[in-house]
């Protein structure tokens, strides 16, 4: 039962490799104190209950900074907005239903404020409000046996259809106490409340800042102030390379992928590992070597290489967005 509950819950726990991501030092978040307000109450569209944004007393500055670093990974535009069309490749049915709940600004734009509202709703709203919102995301009415089988098939992809059908029958009999042949919101809420409170709290816990990240780490500047001895070229300065190296090291990214995209070979990477003990120094030395030998305009090449190597968030933080 709890496995299914965990599957149905929103996956806010973040991947290990980038759990320490944060905005670049000095980067401002586009939230102003005078624009913040609160709208209470639970309505059909659950995100409306905290849109456009929540009061600053509810979201701390480190939490807003954390949200901003995560929002950057979605590649917003220069105004800090993201088009809903950017998420058009979401193929999961429930992913689409979740997107349908997000309030949109003009021209189908998802604003950073709406993103903060969603994150804060997941983290702050009462437990029952959260799992009722979860049900509303899964369906606009009731969950029948076929829909339940789809959920279970996603949860247990290796099970054969017969086993999935038996599990669906079992869950339906457990939750559908009125024998309606489907599960409505009230039945779902009653079933959820039947679990021990500490189990529910654990499954539905979506902290804005993961517990493994201390407040000190969250407030720590993203790059040191030490300078690097080479001249600026085409808008690229020393601090930007230091930032890239520091962020990739903190987020435990595979810097050799970036090196390969910049044209360096395996023996170059091996030599850097032998010459420099810590990862950040290895990355910085690699970037400096590349820059000295680069015969084209370096900035667009580095930005493209960062994106191709799975470091779009770092590229946006360092080069693209400044608010």
Task: Write a structural description.
InterPro entries: DEATH-like_dom_sf, Death_dom, EF-hand-dom_pair. Pfam families: Death. This is Death domain-containing protein. Residues 254-322 form the Death domain. With 323 residues, this protein is mainly α. The protein folds into two domains: 2-132 and 208-215, no CATH class; 224-320, Death Domain, Fas. Helix content is 51%, strand content 3%. The chain is built from 16 helices and four strands. The protein has helices spanning 2-8, 61-72, 93-100, 112-124, 127-138, 145-155, 161-175, 185-193, 197-203, 215-219, 238-250, 255-261, 266-275, 279-293, 298-308, 312-320; strands spanning 81-83, 109-111, 143-144, 182-183. The strands form two sheets. It has a two-stranded antiparallel ribbon. Helix 11 (238-250) packs antiparallel against helix 16. The longest helix is centred in the middle third of the chain and has 15 residues, at 161-175. 27% of the residues are buried.
Q: What is the fold's blueprint, element by element?
A:
Layout: H1 2-8, H2 61-72, E1 81-83, H3 93-100, E2 109-111, H4 112-124, H5 127-138, E3 143-144, H6 145-155, H7 161-175, E4 182-183, H8 185-193, H9 197-203, H10 215-219, H11 238-250, H12 255-261, H13 266-275, H14 279-293, H15 298-308, H16 312-320
Task: Give a concise summary.
This protein is mostly helical and 323 residues long. It is 51% helix and 3% strand.
């Amino acid at each position: 039962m709890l496995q299914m509950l965990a599957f149905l819950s929103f996956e806010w726990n973040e991947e290990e490799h980038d759990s320490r991501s944060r905005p670049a030092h000095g980067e401002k978040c586009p939230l102003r104190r005078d624009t913040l307000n609160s709208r209470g109450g639970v309505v059909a569209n659950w995100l409306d209950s905290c849109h456009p944004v929540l009061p600053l007393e509810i979201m701390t500055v480190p939490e807003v900074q954390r949200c901003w670093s995560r929002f950057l990974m979605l590649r917003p535009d220069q105004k800090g907005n993201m088009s809903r069309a950017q998420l058009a490749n979401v193929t999961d049915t429930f992913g689409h239903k979740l997107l349908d709940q997000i309030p949109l600004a003009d021209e189908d734009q998802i604003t950073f404020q709406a993103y903060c509202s969603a994150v804060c709703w997941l983290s702050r709203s009462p437990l029952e409000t959260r799992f009722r919102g979860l049900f509303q995301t899964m369906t606009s009415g009731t969950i029948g046996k076929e829909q339940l089988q789809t959920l279970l098939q996603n949860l247990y992809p290796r099970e054969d259809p017969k086993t999935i059908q038996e599990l669906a029958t079992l869950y339906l009999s457990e939750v559908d106490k009125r024998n309606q042949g489907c599960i409505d919101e009230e039945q779902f809420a009653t079933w959820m409340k039947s679990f021990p409170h500490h189990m529910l709290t654990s499954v539905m816990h979506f902290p804005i800042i993961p517990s493994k990240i201390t407040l000190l780490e969250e407030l720590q500047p993203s790059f040191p102030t030490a300078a690097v001895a080479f001249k600026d070229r085409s808008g690229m300065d020393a601090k930007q390379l230091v930032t890239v190296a520091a962020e990739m090291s903190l987020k435990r990214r595979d810097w050799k992928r970036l090196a390969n995209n910049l044209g360096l070979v395996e023996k170059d990477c091996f030599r850097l590992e032998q010459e420099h003990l810590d990862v950040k120094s290895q990355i910085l030395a690699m970037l400096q070597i590349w820059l000295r030998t680069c015969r084209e305009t370096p900035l667009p090449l580095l930005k493209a290489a960062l994106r191709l190597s799975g470091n779009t968030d770092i590229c946006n933080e360092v080069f693209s967005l400044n608010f």
